[in-house]
Amino acid sequence: MLAADVWHDIFNFANYGELLALVRNSIIAGVVLGIVGGLIGVFVMMRDLPFAVHGISELSFAGASGALLLGVNVVAGSLAGSIIAAVLIGVLGSRARDRNSIIGVLMPFGLGLGVLFLALYKGRAANKFGLLTGQIVAVDTPQLSWLIVTGAVVLIGLLIVWRPLMFASSDPEQAAARGVPVRVLSLVFMLLLGMAVAISVQIVGALLVLSIVVTPAAAALRVARSPWLVPVLSVLFATLSLVGGILLALGGSLPISPYVTTISFAIYVACRIVDSRQGSRGWTSLRHLRPAARVG
Amino acid sequence: MLNHAKKPEPVLQFEDAAFGYDRRRLWGGLTMELRAGEFLAILGANGSGKTSLLRAVLGLHPLMSGIVRVVGAPPHQGSTEIGYVPQHRRIDTLTPLRARDVVGQGLDGHRWGIGRPDRARRRRIDEMLESVGARGFADRPIGLLSGGEQQRVRIAQALVADPKLLLCDEPLLSLDLNSQRTISGLVDRRRRTHDTAIVFVTHDINPVLPYVDRVLYLAGGRFRMGTVDEVMTSATLSDLYASPVEVVRSGGRVLVAGIPEGADPHHAPETAATLRAG
């Protein structure tokens, strides 16, 4: 009896068609974030920045809760917080050791600030919790346009710097010798990352950003090793987790984040299994995805 | 001006150049010219200023004083006249690049945008991979190749834009003997077929002994330049290190014994780290 209730909370597909119309905005937001998070995640992995992503998302949370308290646009507050964090980490932490300690210092400060703002906030409790663990179902139209514009800026920015950023991320010395402005690029990347994190905070919540910005790319890097197959798979995994999570969460009474993080984690586990089967060779082109040709 | 027009322009030229970091002078007084097809080996202790010299040629770090010219012009970052093989470092296994992508970076990795598939580009990369004997693993992920295979790919990356000068920073480090021979042979063949001038930084002259035209030996804030026979002698090295050093030539190899440990008063903390910091 109890188990059935819990099950009903988790999966419930009554009146699905009507509900679907209500979450149109959320699905659009999910796709936008899937593309942006999946792409930027590849560079986050190559540049060894998962911890930085977590640090940025806590400051983004502080910005968003500050905005909530002041009654101004939450996405704008979130953006301000994460851009400040990203620039600080980018400027002060060019070496890996410095970077980790700076993130370690910034992160609790951001989280504490956020908790303070939320404690002072007298509005709906759901808004508070949503910033930490996700609130996509609440995405309204003005918020959605903010998300789409920010997502478009990140996407266009990434496409412009793609080749030199790939070069600088895989071999910084050689890239510098070839005239790639390595330091400037690294700052530009942190800015784009800050924006991407701000979008993610709105959708999956500050605590779960890594499930979109890191897990899909990490999964893709397990099974593929080509410079175009990895981003494509990463985007696919991220979008699948988000849209799948939204659709599954629709009927139940739970937030979407547990669905998103579970799907994203399951994809990662599956990719690790595939990777161990193929002996770490990695798919380097689509040829390898066809079972008949899976030789080398 | 007329005098200059007669002889071909030197690929690399130093005039009374001095090298160092953070206003600390490592060594100076270098005047030399490197001509097309010439093979120069640079030897010396860690921190003796070898990397500093390479950085000056790449335009990543200014000289303390004096003049450096690459094909007649002051050096600048991103020059297509120079191919550069950085100090060997294992590439992470999860790098999403195949051998051919790494070579492609040498061609257009610095350009903006995502790049389009291009048949001519692909052919050029294939030819380059072929010429370093890397065609067989062109589509394998770079991170899964052996050290020697990775180094071939990096040589191909440095050469694919057809530079006039190839700078190699300890390209043989941590390679097995066989790979050392292969890599030095490849570099030598390039200068014979394409007249590329070579600057080859190494701590051991033996793998490149058959190919070297001149040696630049740095120690104790001073240098000696000349042929192997002139520089790699007990007298010259003893003088440079201000301490008795024994050089023995045996069976086509040069064996050096008695280099004082920490002899270099200008020993920099870590050359590789300084290079990366830029």
TrEMBL record, chain A:
It comes from the Bacteria. Belongs to the ABC-3 integral membrane protein family. The keyword Transmembrane helix applies. This is Metal ABC transporter permease. Gene3D superfamilies: ABC transporter involved in vitamin B12 uptake, BtuC. Coiled coil: none annotated. One of its GO terms (biological process) is response to zinc ion. GO terms for cellular component: ATP-binding cassette (ABC) transporter complex. It is a multi-pass membrane protein. Keywords: Membrane, Transmembrane, Transmembrane helix, Transport. The chain crosses the membrane at residues 27-46, 67-89, 101-123, 144-165, 185-216, 228-250, 256-274. It is found in: Cell membrane; Membrane.
UniProtKB/TrEMBL annotation, chain B:
It comes from the Bacteria. Transmembrane segments: none annotated. Gene3D superfamilies: P-loop containing nucleotide triphosphate hydrolases. SUPFAM superfamilies: P-loop containing nucleoside triphosphate hydrolases. Keywords: ATP-binding, Nucleotide-binding, Transport. One of its GO terms (molecular function) is ATP binding. InterPro entries: AAA+_ATPase, ABC_transporter-like_ATP-bd, ABC_transporter-like_CS, Metal_Ion_Import_ABC, P-loop_NTPase. It holds the Pfam family ABC_tran. Residues 12-245 form the ABC transporter domain. Belongs to the ABC transporter superfamily. This is ABC transporter ATP-binding protein. It comes from Kribbella capetownensis. The lineage of its organism: Bacteria, Bacillati, Actinomycetota, Actinomycetes, Propionibacteriales.
